[in-house]
Amino acid sequence: DLDLHPSKRWMPLITDKKTIKDLANAFVPSGKLVEMVDKALPFLVETLPYPFGDELRGVAAASGLPLGNLFHGRNLDFGLFMGWDMKNRSWIVAEQLKPLVVNVDFRRNNQTVFKSTTFAGYIGMLTGIKPNVFTLTMNERFSLDGGYIGILEWILGQRKGMWMSFLTRSVLENATSYEVAKTRLAQTELLAPAYFILGGNQTGQGCIITRSRLLSLDILEIDLKLGRWYVLETNYDHWKAPLFLDDRRTPGMTCMNKTTQTNITLKTMYSVLSTKPVLNKLTTYTTLMDVSTGNLESYIRDCPNPCMPW
Question: Where is the Choloylglycine hydrolase/NAAA C-terminal domain (predicted)?
Answer without folding.
Answer: 68-244
